[in-house]
């Protein structure tokens, strides 16, 4: 642990970025973390151990914290929602202050945020970790449809258990799983839900009554080429109708109808549409940055936080960094990517606090454990350039060991490592496994 020197720490009379003294330290923090999800808690935990007690503030409005990677298993009856839920107050790191509110306005020129209710909080440094918001509202009729029979989504803690109930009550017809045309959290989640549903329906003896459709806006089944063929084989074995270049734009519950806009080869919308009647419809919602961030000086034209995709430092405000899904970095938006974000943030924010230029680079790592049945997983690990796998095993092949990692090891790693700021991703393990594999190939081991 690097303990920051006195000059980089908070004191009873704190200076702001411009050197002016603040009179009310209770509304000023050396480090302000906006968001109490995986990235926010991980960042706060790291720096609460480096800075004096009370120097770190965490702004987070929600009482419950969810292990979102577990929602796929909850929706498949393999985990309970309760197992994925913890009370936020029990996760706040010792020495940090939980500000149970939300930011409605960023004023980085004054190192200030405004909370709902009008209170201003100032900071010396800030980490924006607001995550990505589910935007069911961008699909006409989706919000209303989620409250009707047959329509659900594993993305929402309020509807994930409904998915399992719907699958268990399903008797026949079209079961449709959608992937949106736009940013999405955990890009593999819609097809994971589809595969698990196939397994459940087979166990129930009603699979022959189902026409299962995976409708994706992409031009192929998955965005990382290395895993396309294995997933195509899974879909073919399960008799899943994969329809590409289709974007869900409307749901009509009076007719149990889902309308898809057809996309051209470049992913642009056309005037052509396709309507499909459903008995079961799982929505993969598009996502956006939270409203306050979209309207802030930090945002790019897409609304996500504009950061250097190597250092994760704001391009406009050097005392501000990002972490997690709210950024415009090219990595997939997964909890696994947060671990490598935190490794980068830990070093670079420390450098900034010491008056040094951040130079450590995020490697773009992300992971998506693709659950293809109730006991097999394709452990996809990658960055924007392609596979970035940790083990010497064939991770493109559905495996039971990978399922055990997904169901048992990864939740424990999340609760005890990631959000407590101890887990920095598998880069070190990857280097070791590659060394061992190299030695084996050379006949040394």
TrEMBL record:
Origin superkingdom: Eukaryota
Protein name per Swiss-Prot or TrEMBL: Sulfide:quinone oxidoreductase, mitochondrial
Family membership noted in the UniProt record: Belongs to the SQRD family.
An example Gene Ontology molecular-function term: sulfide:quinone oxidoreductase activity
EC code: 1.8.5.8
Keyword Flavoprotein: yes
Function: Catalyzes the oxidation of hydrogen sulfide with the help of a quinone, such as ubiquinone-10, giving rise to thiosulfate and ultimately to sulfane (molecular sulfur) atoms. Requires an additional electron acceptor; can use sulfite, sulfide or cyanide (in vitro). It is believed the in vivo electron acceptor is glutathione.
Keywords tagged on the record: FAD, Flavoprotein, Mitochondrion, Oxidoreductase, Quinone, Transit peptide
Cofactors required: FAD
Subcellular location: Mitochondrion
Gene Ontology process terms (BP): sulfide oxidation, using sulfide:quinone oxidoreductase
Domain named FAD/NAD(P)-binding: residues: 29-144
Entry's Gene Ontology cellular component terms: mitochondrion
InterPro entries recorded: FAD/NAD-bd_sf, FAD/NAD-binding_dom, Sulphide_quinone_reductase
Catalytic activity: a quinone + hydrogen sulfide + glutathione + H(+) = S-sulfanylglutathione + a quinol; ubiquinone-10 + hydrogen sulfide + glutathione + H(+) = S-sulfanylglutathione + ubiquinol-10; ubiquinone-10 + hydrogen sulfide + sulfite + 2 H(+) = ubiquinol-10 + thiosulfate
